[in-house]
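LAB NOTEBOOK - FOLDING QUEUE
OPERATOR: T.R.
BATCH SIZE: 2
PURPOSE: Compare the predicted structure-token outputs for two unrelated chains run back to back under identical settings.
PRIORITY: normal
REVIEWER: second-year student, initials M.K.

ITEM 1
FIELD SEQUENCE / FIELD STRUCTURE:
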Amino acid sequence: MIRVVLADDQPVLRAGLKVLIEAAPDLEVVGEADNGRDAVRLAASARADVVVMDIQMPELDGLAATQLITTNEDLAGVKVLILTTFEVDGNVFSALRAGASGFLGKRARPDQLIEAIRIVHSGEALLSPSATKSLIARYLTHPDAAAPAGPPDLDVLTAREREILTLVAAGLSNGEIAARLVLSPATAKTHVNRAMVKLGARDRAQLVVIAYSSGLARPAAY
């Protein structure tokens, strides 16, 4: 059972999300927070697997709360899924930089939210790969975007791992990478995991950020 904490300052929205999530046989809501500070507290006390996090909240916003969760060694297994009103949003990029594992627009279909929670929990793939790629590329090259603090040295990767990192940055899943490179899905997953360990990446979201910030992946034209 995947244990979910909901963090949103709108009670009606939280109530709707709770009903939706608890209708899934493998998900349960173990806590609700109307501010970022309580979200961080509940991530620990409720033993959450995934925190579904709004960005705009009182006391402590979702970005700061995400960073507190993802930098806390005691919460290393907790994943954060950002729910945002606008998918292409500078705050979402900041959330990924803070350690969020993915994001989803609030206009997503109910089945997309359920699947998003499962995907983030598994750590297997980013949500909305094409939108995520576009978002990260745009804000890494935007004049107002903060430059990454010392991106990792890609020389620690093998040639195959660099190739796979490029495909991860393009939004491909492990299965798609395996098909592209004629590998087994298990082998593709192993290469992805090794790249994460070598680069100190928490999950695939951070791998994408590293790929763009290091120049390995190039942004599309806008």
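ITEM 2
FIELD SEQUENCE / FIELD STRUCTURE:
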Amino acid sequence: MELNQIYVDENFLAVNKPAGLAAVPGGWEADVPALVKLLEADFGRVWTVHRLDKGTSGVVLFARTAAAHRTLSLLFETHAVRKTYLAIVVGIPQWDEHTARHPLRINVGHSHRTVVDHAKGKPSETAFRVLERFTDHSLLEARPATGRTHQVRVHAYALGFPLLGDELYGQPSIERDAKVPRRGVPLHRPALHAVSLEFEFEGKPFSFTAPHPKDFAEALEKLRLSEGFQSPPEE
């Protein structure tokens, strides 16, 4: 598989991960090729700094030395990395910007869902901003301040705007529920793309951007053509 390398130096590398490829091997899919193994075939040993869900596309960062791994991991742990996602959601928010602070508990039940749990959940925060409104869907920017599993997906769902194509968190498949407005949008995964990462490493600023993958871009184009742009609600 040919990988889209965004940046490579002696300390780390950034890759535009395609949807459908796991970042690291694990679980019942341990024998399925993962991004880290594909990179190691070209670069030798690499260290995982953070992860994206298998169904999420976009920028992923890997360290190339143990020292760089320690530094980058600390940046993520201290929330010194600015992460920006794009999400296509079902529904039209009446707000232009909103910060979700629902506490989250991970790995719940047989499907290993992340759930809102005000008693046992860990503090979690995602800032949302509406970029485009259509008739039945919206394009949101999401900036998670914390890094809980499935955080953006669950916070969007908790606000009442599940991601298009997200069967785990409130968005049924088009085959199972024809009532959910899909308008032939060609996306068969959660509509989430990690568009950029920004951070400072050893005093030098870095900013990496991943362009929309084909399925995400086609879904947006379909929505713009079939639903049209809607102006923001009046105050």
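REVIEWER COMMENT (ITEM 2): The longest helix spans residues 214-226.
FOLLOW-UP: none requested
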